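ok posting inputs for the zinc ion job
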Amino acid sequence: MLFTWWRNRKRRKILASPMPGHWAAILDQNVAQLSRLTEAQRTLLYQRVQIFVKEKYWEGCNGFEITEEVKLTIAGQACLLTLGFATDCFDRLQTVLVYPDTYVAREEMLNSIGVLTEGTSFRLGESWGQGPIVLSWESIREGGQIPDDGRNVVIHEFAHYYDAIDRQFNGTPLLSGPEEYRRWNEVMTREFQKLVSQVQQGQETFIDPYGSTNPAEFFAVCSEHYFEQPCLMQEYSLDLYETLRMFYRQDPARQY
Ligand SMILES: [Zn+2]
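and the output
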């Protein structure tokens, strides 16, 4: 309670100064979706970007320098996800780590027959539940400048953030009641299975095949398509679009 009061006070202070004038040009260039927002959404996005940039701890990895452009590009793309929510600035997220390009991560995986494989993998980004979000700048910039290819690593990782808010990384974010959970389970399970079977049969898929990895990746990949190709998603599956709209509480297809 006291913390919320203190945080809100700090946020009011941040918003008391207008956003620096040159920020809008950087955001326009690297967050292509901005051109489709309504005036009210744009104002809200600017406010959330100001808070995001100021509140998070930013760290460059492998010698990468965190510039104003890096912060604004990440904050701008991430805050697109929040526009339907009354108050949300990814409050639980404290740290954003940025690598210059794809980075190598050590990992251990237990496969279905119980064998632990240790190795390395090349990654574009990752989200650690309540921990930091890790991103690669090369893919962020590309993702922001091409607004309609259905690929955006920032949207992907921040969708994972929402998934993990209830501490269960299972492809289901926090919803508002039993009816929403029922609908989410019904539609997302059906659509996930549809994608898995399309991939198994070697068919061309609208949803990126990476979404067939597991329900958590399915939600993150669908979020990328939802914000980047909302009309195509409606054509592919209106149920899927409407289910994501139920969670994100915004209607990007109306802005096309
Ligand atoms: Zn993922």
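notes: The beta strands are 57-60, 95-99, 103-110, 116-123, 125-127, 133-136. The pocket of zinc ion is lined by residues 156, 160, 217, 220 (CB under 6 Å).
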